[in-house]
Amino acid sequence: NAGVTQTPKFQVLKTGQSMTLQCAQDMNHEYMSWYRQDPGMGLRLIHYSVGAGITDQGEVPNGYNVSRSTTEDFPLRLLSAAPSQTSVYFCASSYRRTYEQYFGPGTRLTVT
Amino acid sequence: QQPVQSPQAVILREGEDAVINCSSSKALYSVHWYRQKHGEAPVFLMILLKGGEQKGHEKISASFNEKKQQSSLYLTASQLSYSGTYFCGTLSGNTPLVFGKGTRLSVIA
Q1: A34 touches chain B (CB under 8 A)
Q2: Does A93 reach chain B within 8 Å, measured CB to CB?
Q3: For chain B, what is the mean pLDDT?
Q4: Nearest residue in A to B93, CA atom
Q5: Interchain CB contact of B30 with A (< 8 Å)
Q6: Least enclosed by CB within 10 Å: which of A1, A4, A112, B22?
Q7: CA distances from A100 to A75, B31, B86 (A)
Q8: Each residue's pLDDT tens digit, A44-97
Q9: Residues of A in contact with B98 (CB under 8 A)
Q10: In a mutagenesis test of the B interface, which of A101, A102, A107 is the best target, namely the one with the most B β-carbons within 10 Å?
Q11: Taking the C-alpha atoms of A38, B31, B19 and A93 in order, what is their torsion angle to the nearest 10 degrees?
């Protein structure tokens, strides 16, 4: 049981490049979410999903896309990277929206 | 809307107690508490449900005042291992979990 896994751990992008941050969980959780963490800002919700095929926007969705084709996977796509997207990104999953969340190890992204 | 946490930071000596507060302007269904150590992912501590009892986890406990939409996290006889950033997350209606900005706790010998 690997829990929540994220790849890559570190990534450096140039402005304008696109990429996908991968997130997978093996706990059969319905609810998955993406957060970004910046100094002094806490954990801010980017997008979330309550089940396969269903996604919705969080607090800071601009510049990011998500899809949920399977229960296990919830990738986050940066369409055209900007320096303002430099951050640590965490994926989390839970059985339902109201249950405790399990976080992946995070991806540290730098956009130059 | 993010819940408001206070204080922003606190420094304790081993064995001292601390209280971290979390408040919201919305009617809450539940409050979650997580701890994040430096360079690591947040880890779940406990959930306080509307109408539920005060929760406890070793020497860490929490309460939920439904009338004031406030929760408090109590750390008793702090240990070096309690150091980290504590986040509260709040749920109201059908909205997703929203986290506060965190409280940085440093325990020194």
Answers
A1: no
A2: no
A3: 92
A4: A98
A5: yes
A6: A1
A7: 21, 10, 15
A8: 999 999 999 999 999 999 999 999 999 999 999 999 999 999 999 999 999 999
A9: 45, 59
A10: A101
A11: -50
